[in-house]
Each structure stands twice: as structure tokens, then as C-alpha cells.
Amino acid sequence: MSSLRAAELASGLDAVRGRVDAACAAAGREAQRPTLVVVTKFFPGSDVELLAGMGVTDIGESRDPEAGDKVAELPGQLRADVRVHFVGQLQTNKARRVARYADVVQSVDRARLVRALERGRAEAVDDGDQEDPLQVLLQVDLGEGEQAGRGGAAPDEVSSLAEDVADARWLELRGVMAIAPLGLAPDDTRRAFDRLVGLGEQLRHTHPGATWVSAGMSGDLELAVAAGATHLRVGSAILGSRPPQR
Question: Which of 24, 52, 59, 243 is the most buried (most CB within 10 A)?
């Protein structure tokens, strides 16, 4: 493994951790530091190994089958030590495969996807590849008008979708996720994240275990921390620009 690459990752990770620490201090939530999900899509498994050595416990992927191939190649103990989040929009025809290797799917936005993930996880359990339910987050579309369309269920669909997940034997509802609409000013982005946190609070009235709120990426993580996000999804600020495609 390249010592230069290790230094690059360490520098990016330290900078992001510093930003998170400062944001938590500003929000008065030092005791409630959010989980950092390092989004390693497009980058090799060797980067995952380096990051794990730096204390990273959660990684994010968004492309199948590349993600599945990468996870399968991770050494056994390393795979046991990291939690794999699938964070990208997921086609129904790929859901059964993703359910076999992911620990968390953050982008559940329709009933058909719930059913496909349930089938895939049940098959993985029957085959002995998995033992635990797949943890899922409901992706919410926070956009309005022209800002809509970055993926996710409409806010008024969340309750029904949550019931679909709750009825599934091999899925576990953990909370909500969203991507900030494009083109918003910082104050509007913060209000969008506040809406997501509010939806999460409503969801917990009927699903007490749904405590996660996944929001914030490289450019807006401070706003997500201020709103109360429990999970941040950060890629380029740590790993750098996307590597050339082969």
C-alpha cells in the first residue's frame, strides 16, 4: 500500500474530523458526535483497508455490482470490523444482490424496493451468508418544485413506507435519510435538514428504534450537524476527486 496514499487519506480524514468537532462544539452536542460514513465509491478496497486502520468503522457505497465485488475482496476480519452502507439510489432488480452484502441500505424509497430487499436478505440468511436483519433508512425527497427529484419518497409517504419495512421479517427500520436539494442557500439547506429531523421525530412515535438521521455530505456537513444529524456521508473531502475510470 502506498505511503503517499495513506498520508493523503489521513490528511483528509483529520480535516473532516476537525470540521465535525467544530460543528458539534458550535451546536453544543459534543456528547452526541455523529457517525462518519466515509463514502468509498469509485475507490479501491485498499483505501478501505487504510481507512479502517485510521479508525473508520463505516463506509458507503453506491454502485452495484462494483460495491459487491469490493466487499467480497475485503479480508475477513476487516469485513467484520466495518459496516457497509449502500447510500445510492437502488434499482429494484439489483436490490436482492445488495441485500446479501450490505449491512445498511440508506436509500429505501418505495414499497417494491422493500419487498426486493426482504427477499434478498431472506435468501442470504437461508444460505448462511447473513444472520441479522438488514438495517434500512427511508430516503426522503426534501425538494419542492424545481428542487424535487434528488431521490426519495415524498414526506407524506414516509409513514406508509415505514409500515412496509416494519412488516418485513428480515429488515430493520433505523431512521431517515436525505440529500439536500441542489442550489439552496445555506439557510434553506439548514431548514431542509430541520424538516428531515422533524420527520424522524414523528417516525419514532410509532417506530422507537428509528433513531438515525442521515444527512450532510462534504459541502454541507456543518449544517447537518447543527440540525441534529446522527450520520454524515462524506466522500470527496476525505478521498479526493474521483479516480479515472478504467
Answer: 59
Residue 83 has pLDDT above 90, yes or no: yes
> For the chain, what is the radius of gyration of the CA atoms?
17
Best CA proximity match to 193, nearest among 222, 219, 227, 151: 227
Cβ atoms 13, 54 nearer than 8 A: yes
Q: What is the pLDDT of residue 149?
A: 58
Q: Is the pTM of this model over 0.90?
A: yes
Grid cell, residue 12, equals: 483528509
Spatial CB neighbours of 233, under 8 Å, sequence gap ≥ 6: 37, 39, 60, 85, 87, 106, 214, 216, 217
Residue 1: the pLDDT is 55
Where do the DSSP E strands lie in 62-216?
Answer: 83-86, 104-108, 134-139, 171-177, 212-214
CA distance 9 to 51: 7
Q: What is the pLDDT of residues 99-121, one digit of tens each?
A: 999 999 999 999 999 999 999 99
From residue 171, alpha-carbon distances to 34, 94, 117, 162, 243 in Å are 23, 16, 8, 11, 34
38-56 pLDDT, tens digit per residue, is 999 999 999 999 999 999 9
User: CA-based angle 116:122:125, to the nearest 5?
Assistant: 145
Residues 62, 37: contact at Cβ < 8 Å?
Answer: no
CB-based contact 107:86 (threshold 8 Å): yes
Any idea what DSSP says for residue 136?
A: E
Q: Report the half-sphere exposure of 159 (CA within 13 A, side-chain side).
A: 6
